[in-house]
Specification:
The protein has 824 residues and is α+β, with helices and mostly antiparallel strands. It has a domain of 182 residues. The protein has 32 helices and 14 strands. Helix 11 crosses helix 32. The protein is elongated. The relative contact order is 0.09. It binds a DNA duplex (15 and 15 nucleotides) through helix 1, helix 9, helix 13 and helix 16. One of its GO terms (cellular component) is RNA polymerase II transcription regulator complex. It is found in: Nucleus. Belongs to the E2F/DP family.
Length: 824
DNA sequence: GACTCCCGCCAAAGC
DNA sequence: GCTTTGGCGGGAGTC
């Protein structure tokens, strides 16, 4: 007791006796967050806390007694922590003497009364959400524990979670400072980014998939393999996410960070922030957290421990009203989950750079983010930010394009007013978007849809599309300068509810077309700036050479017939952030430039080559989108179209460019059969199909009659039309315009509908209260491309001799999220 | 019986 | 060498 007394009282008597480490950082923390804060001095110890009192072995006893009886408690209070151990003991004896065992137990507060959530409520009630700097915002753990009548251990649980959100920070031993919610939004933004970079969305999907496989396909060996791959992909352990000025320096944070409640809490929050809907089951969260430790050690006890901790965290987060408990129901029954009820987190345009203590977090990402932001300013300097990412409708996109065009065209003077490079960028971006829409028109029209282009145009009110006929017409239309650039037809996928607008660009020299992704992954509108917008030409030759291709996975995917599991491997690979990032980085920095130059020489950009510098800039502008080579529409492909479609879709100059390839891989039937339903999530453009729209997806099965199995050949135009119409909301999900009724066989009967079932399970889970009605068209998995790393959007395809492509690793994707129709 | 999560041991880190 | 911090898992309360 003597030593304890000296130790506990000395720091309070000696001002500025805080540890050096703290002294070095804490003032920064204070000045950063609370500029008016007093110098960091350890305040004198409150008089009422007498030396021998704090948290000796008798303190528990005292607390026990205090909690046991109001009388005892009041007496305890009257004595003002007299710390008379003898008295405490006497009281204890007295209590026990006067109360029988049962009574004594009954006098104890119930378990609920002692819950961490309630305790956290009490704790939070002590401090304002938004404390002023003038207030005394210090937290003395001893005091708090004392006043809340709990052992300090419990306060640590609360404080650790609050620390993870930067609502408190540690100043010194036993001393914290309360920040309230001032930093919450920044923290959440940072966490969301890190969560995206860690591809938590994909991890969640993979966990779900694995759950399904465990349930329906107990192939232990294969699952183990999957698990191993999962582990190998999860070596990238993430550590505590810090905000500038709030860095942790304490060794404890670093030494125990792996399993720290802080880090766990942050990861848990990240899962919510990257999920759509923002519901995370405990099981999934625990598995992901375990996965980041060591999955091979996964056993029940570890899992249980993780669940315990998650409950601890969840209780605190619930008290903060950031989450609330829900239950999700799936095939295996009801599972506990939590739903995010905190503020929605939008990307921070300012992108104040957050920092991580992690050494494994790939720096290129943050760098690219920074450059993206800079690019954003350059691209549309005069416009405020617009965010269409969450908008499900194409209409606004079109309007936005129109606005952009007006802005560009109605400039009172020549584009010189705006810098040439900026103008060029605008035009360039606009061109892409126009191409998207143009080709969409073509798709719809050529599919024989009753809706006339005019109707479409009305529907897409304000559309900037002037080329409302076929793409060939559009191509021939001498429209300056964007139409002039549009000398070749473009295959297009409806951007609508997908977050991405892929555009197929022909590349005459290489003979390879390119898919340009407009990827509003950062929730910036493409009309202002799309940080996730990048050109990455990938000629066919390079595609097959992508390093990350795993031949085993490829073999599995392409040869294991009816094997759902095959689809699992690739999502696994999609998690290989560490593996892919370097590749992606290399691809982005090197290939992009190189290919971009090719584009300059050969393509529509040629006309703007005079401003080479700006063009280069514009190309490097798009750091995370992709130009993906697409299969050439061989005769077989063409044969798959009606004449009408041919006329409209395939251009005069480039008959190989079929809109069918926007969202469709002309796979051979055997390939599709092998890939199975998950293959419907596989397209060169990564178009995600809702389960209902999958009914139209058989177009994937074969668009090339030359393939080995032409019996399943579909009419690509029809399917694309259906897909397009569904996704732009012109026809409801499940309604298909049949070109060939045989095509619309429900895929649910397909033996490989595992993915579908899994999807449905997910849907249930995410929408526990929503009936299992077919998803709306916009229930297509959303933000599929949102992972900022982007490499998962690359589709390594290897060319077959018949002009089709074989999917290799990296082309299978598990949907990352779904639109929560009812909630959002 | 499963779900929750309190509780406190005890080891690492801090001082 | 003591205190602070916090990982961890037993096991009790609750559903």
């Amino acid at each position: 007791l003597g030593a304890q007394e000296n130790h506990s009282s000395e720091p309070y008597r000696n001002v500025l006796k805080t540890p050096l480490k703290q002294a070095a950082t804490s003032p920064l923390v204070l000045t950063e967050i609370q500029p008016d804060c007093q110098p960091l001095t350890t305040p004198p110890k409150p008089k009422e806390i007498l030396p021998a009192d704090p948290w000796t072995p008798t303190s528990n006893l005292k607390m026990l007694i205090s909690a046991a009886s109001p009388e005892i408690r009041s007496r305890e209070q009257r004595r003002e922590l007299s710390n008379n151990t003898r008295e405490v003991l006497q009281a204890k004896h007295c209590l026990q003497e006067h109360l029988s065992g049962d009574e004594y137990e009954k006098s104890q507060p119930s378990r609920k009364e002692k819950s961490l959530g309630l305790l956290c409520h009490k704790f939070l009630a002590r401090y304002p959400d938004y404390p002023s700097t003038a207030e005394n915002n210090f937290i003395c753990l001893d005091e708090v524990a004392e006043e809340l009548n709990v052992e300090r251990r419990r306060i640590y649980d609360i404080v650790n979670v609050l620390e993870s959100l930067h609502m408190v920070s540690r100043l010194a031993k036993n001393r914290y400072v309360w920040h309230g919610r001032h930093n919450l939004s920044k923290t959440l933004q940072a966490l969301k980014k890190v969560g995206e970079e860690n591809k938590y969305t994909q991890q969640i999907q993979m966990i779900k998939k694995r759950e399904y496989e465990h349930e329906f396909d107990l192939d232990g060996e294969r699952n183990e393999e999957t698990a191993r791959s999962f582990v190998s992909n999860e070596h990238s352990e993430m550590s505590f996410v810090e905000l500038p000025g709030m860095e942790f320096r304490a060794a404890s944070v670093n030494s125990r960070k792996d399993k720290s409640l802080r880090v766990m809490s942050q990861k848990f929050v990240m899962l919510f922030l990257v999920s759509t809907p923002q519901i995370v089951s405990l099981e999934v969260a625990a598995k992901i957290l375990i996965g980041e430790d060591q999955l091979e050690d996964l056993d029940k006890s570890k899992f249980k421990t993780k669940i315990r901790r998650l409950y601890d965290i969840a209780n605190v987060l619930s008290s903060l009203e950031l989450i609330k408990k829900v239950h999700v129901t799936e095939e295996r029954g009801r599972k506990p989950a939590f739903k995010w009820t905190g503020p929605s987190v939008l990307p921070n345009i300012q992108d104040k750079k957050f920092e991580m203590t992690s050494t494994t977090c790939p720096p290129p990402i943050s760098e690219s983010i920074t450059s993206k932001e800079q690019c954003s300013k350059n691209l549309f300097p005069s416009r405020g930010k617009q965010n269409f990412t969450r908008h499900p409708s194409l209409i606004k996109l079109v309007r936005s394009i129109e606005n952009d065009r007006r802005m560009i065209q109605s400039a009172p003077t020549s584009p010189v007013k705006m810098s040439a490079s900026k103008q060029l960028k605008n035009v360039f971006l606009y061109l892409f978007l126009s191409m998207v829409l143009t080709q969409m028109y073509s798709c719809i029209k050529c599919s024989g849809l009753p809706s006339s282009p005019k109707e479409m145009k009305m529907k897409l009110s304000g559309s900037s599309l002037e080329c409302n006929l076929s793409s060939s017409e559009a191509a021939s239309k001498p429209e300056p300068p964007r139409s002039a650039a549009l000398t070749q037809p473009l295959a297009v996928c409806p951007p609508s509810h997908s977050s991405v607008s892929p555009v197929i660009l022909p590349h005459p020299h290489s003979g390879v077309s390119y898919a340009v992704y407009l990827q509003p992954s950062q929730a910036h509108t493409v009309t202002t700036y799309n940080p996730g917008f990048m050109l990455q030409p990938l000629p066919r030759a390079n595609v097959t050479g992508i390093k990350s291709i795993n031949s085993n996975a490829l073999h599995k995917i392409t040869t294991v017939e009816g094997d759902n599991q095959a689809a699992t491997d690739d999502p696994t690979k999609s998690l290989t952030a560490k593996e892919r990032l370097p590749i992606k980085s290399e691809t982005s920095s090197q290939r992009c430039l190189k290919r971009s130059q090719e584009l300059q020489e050969n393509n529509l950009i040629k006309r703007y080559k005079s401003d080479e510098e700006s063009l280069d800039t514009s190309l490097t502008f798009f750091p995370s989108g992709y130009l993906i080579p697409l299969t050439q529409c061989t005769h077989g492909n063409k044969a798959g179209f009606s004449n009408k479609e041919k006329a409209g879709i395939c251009s005069v100059q480039h008959t190989t460019y079929s809109p069918a390839i926007a969202g469709v891989i002309p796979l051979t039937a055997s390939e599709v059969k092998a890939v199975n339903i998950p293959a419907f999530h596989i397209t060169p453009l990564n178009i995600m199909l809702s389960p209902t729209s999958i009914a139209a997806a058989p177009v994937l099965s074969n668009s090339c009659p030359n393939s080995s199995n032409s019996s399943s050949a579909q009419n690509p135009g029809s399917a694309i039309m259906n897909f397009t119409l569904q996704n732009i909301g012109l026809i409801p999900a499940g309604v298909h315009v049949p070109a060939n009724p045989v095509q619309h066989t429900p895929v649910s009967s397909h033996p490989g509908n595992a993915s579908l079932r899994s999807e449905n399970a997910n849907l249930q889970e995410e929408k526990p209260s929503v009936s299992k009605e077919p998803q709306e068209p916009h229930a297509v998995t959303e933000n599929f491309f949102r992972t900022p790393g982007g490499p998962n959007t690359v589709s390594p395809l290897s060319a077959n001799s018949d002009g089709t492509y074989r999917i290799s690793q990296g082309t299978l994707y598990i949907p990352q999220r779904k639109l929560e129709v009812s909630e959002d």
